[in-house]
Predict the structure.
Amino acid sequence: MNVVVVESPAKAKTINKYLGSGYTVLASFGHVRDLPAKDGSVLPDQDFEMTWEVDSASQKRMKDIADAVKSSDGLFLATDPDREGEAISWHVLDLLKKKKVLGDKPVKRVVFNAITKKAVLDAMANPRDIDTPLVDAYLARRALDYLVGFNLSPVLWRKLPGARSAGRVQSVALRLVCDRETEIERFIPEEYWNISALLKTPRGDEFVARLVSADGKRMQKNSVANGEQANRIKDLLEGASYVVASIEAKPVKRNPGPPFTTSTLQQAASSRLGFSASRTMQVAQRLYEGIDIGGETVGLITYMRTDGVQMAPEAIEAARSAVADQFGARYVPDAPRIYSTKAKNAQEAHEAIRPTEFTRTPDQVKSYLDSDQLRLYDLIWKRGIASQMASAEIERTTAEITASKGGDQAGLRAVGSVIRFDGFIAAYTDQKEDGEQSDDSDEDGRLPEINAQESLAKQKVNASQHFTEPPPRYSEASLIKKMEELGIGRPSTYAATLKTLNDREYVTVDKRRLVPQAKGRLVTAFLENFFTKYVEYDFTADLEEKLDRISAGDLDWKQVLRDFWTDFFAQIEDTKELRVTNVLDALNEALAPLVFPKREDGSDPRICQVCGTGNLSLKLGKYGAFVGCSNYPECNFTRQLSSEGGAEAEALGNDPKALGKDPETDEDVTLRSGRFGPYVQRGDGKEAKRSSLPKGWKPEDIDFEKALQLLALPRDVGPHPETSKMITAGLGRYGPFVLHDGTYANVDSIEDVFTIGLNRAVIVLAEKQSKGGRGRGTPAALKELGDHPDGGPITVRDGRYGPYVNWAKVNATLPKGKDPQSVTVEEALALIVEKAGKSGSKPAKAKKAPAKTAKAKADDTAEAKPKKKSTAKAKTASKTKKS
């Protein structure tokens, strides 16, 4: 009997069926150990010695694997066919060696690119040893990400309150988003005019021709820059005679693109299906691991983390055969198509993403798939089969037309396209990002019959004014495409990087566009000014290239770490002398459009509008950055720093906007702007009733009625039928809620607070209690994460204001939108450290217990720093500085 170790339990059952009774297939459930989320896990002064820990769940799994190996004839390590998969096999093997259960049993590494019987059996027949350079590349990447996260994030906490974390790839991706926002803010629109003529042939057919030359010059898009020039050319065309100078019909071939890579799949799924990168990968993972089809689990696609664009020879032949069967012999090209990637630093170690069987069409499997799975499989199948189809044949017709009036002339052009043979377009049409048509699409349509030297009749001349537009904000898809072009990150990191930016609230997604938030722009500006090198695109791409060279066996991974650490540690040390005033001065300049938005009256946006003499500047407070006046405390003007609505908030200033008088108290109801944003207030002084505006409510939309609604909260809903105690509805720090006897339950929207009835409120509260809500007592744990490095359990609980992480006496609220069940130990430790640092408290140590941490597969997760420095780390800093 042989033991086979795979990553996923979903694959284990299927592979065991393929291999038969002579094999036992067990799952590692991903990584079995990782670097502890504390200082000293990587020791630069000990030649980057790394300390690994196994969490409690993985300890049990490793025991099961070890027990099975003891009585086995051999071990096959069959984790995923990429760098992470190689690392998992290496970790498993290392742990088994330490448990001394291997003896002289043979150990082999096998990889299969698809979960099909043939792929699995072929792999088992061709085993190899663990790829040591690939493991070295993993170790280097893991150490780099740890060293960046555990050294740079604390600098942010000290110098930029409110900032959450920084990461080697994460921060560079954020810079791309922020740089694009700066481009948009500083963009100056330029006027231009488009001029065209509607013309008629002698046969009565109409078509449109566009201006391409005038005044003896070729016309570019922005050549006609004002209305005066446009009207002069229009007058010429109005009175001109038109003759066809030449007509040319030219055949054009359009070739299909290659099958999907990870990034192109994420881009296509975003633009066509509206999927986020993480959603795409989750669905693709399921298609790869296998779907139950007619009682048999079958992997439908090949491995989905790849930058290769080529298919295996047998897959190419299968695709060509399927093309002939599905579309006909004419659609099969004379020779197989061979592709090579244009992406920077692509390794092409694996096949492109393709169906495991081209004969398994989307229609044949749709009854076995859910909606997301079917849509993504349909996309992969069509792109894969199109890649081996014949070229589309298009006839492109160009008519050059001369307009003459007296001695003046202008040139116009009409272009039309006709698809003579659709070729691969019958299966799949390429698109540009975000649904725009590609340049070679049939956007011109068909032209009527036009003959050279014939006269044309003018029907109408159009001159339309336009203004240039700034570049669009990145979507997830276009950001991934840009990162790939620059060589930043790798297929396995794109989705995790984007998720981190969203979880940290550095960016938000609005209409599928990534909008940098004030917090994210502050972090980027800080890093660009004080850690310039480490957010440079070329530097990051060069480091990725070095990691690739390590995996190829061309570089020593320890030397790469030594070279990086020397400069990076020196930069960290330099920031210790950095004063907050230096930081604020730099951020004021770097973020001027955000901090000091232009005013409609043209006045200096850096002068306080309340006192008229003070200078506005960024200030740093407990909850992050805001804008304040230099004349404080005489002038207490403050404004929340926001990516949207900054100008509106400043215009409101500290000058309250009167909305009316409360009919019951006769007090003034006003709209105001404070440090934490706009709010409504009734009356004056410390006893005045106030209410912040709910999320989604804009200051300009607030009227007297809405203000009274907010100020009337909390609202009595009615007595609970079981306790007779009143249920109330209100708006709190964590959003709208209902409250009964100390138990809070969130409701979907602020509108629910005003309209929710007694029956619905009772149901919402009951659902909350069924999930562990227990009023003012200690809430039940939703998830056990393991023990803190300093002892004591870490748990996730659901409390009065929403879910939070608990350790000892520290309670740290989870970021908005964070799923409590998805919290990792690393994330929990970061939140605990940040919370303890803000409160200035020192949690009482729980009884010492072995430290246990969870696995983490993404690159940028090492971001937390415990309160106490380890002795080893302190020595590291001292020795490195001396050297």
Q: What stands out?
A: Residues 343 and 685 are 63 Å apart (CA to CA). DSSP finds 25 helices and 32 strands in the chain.
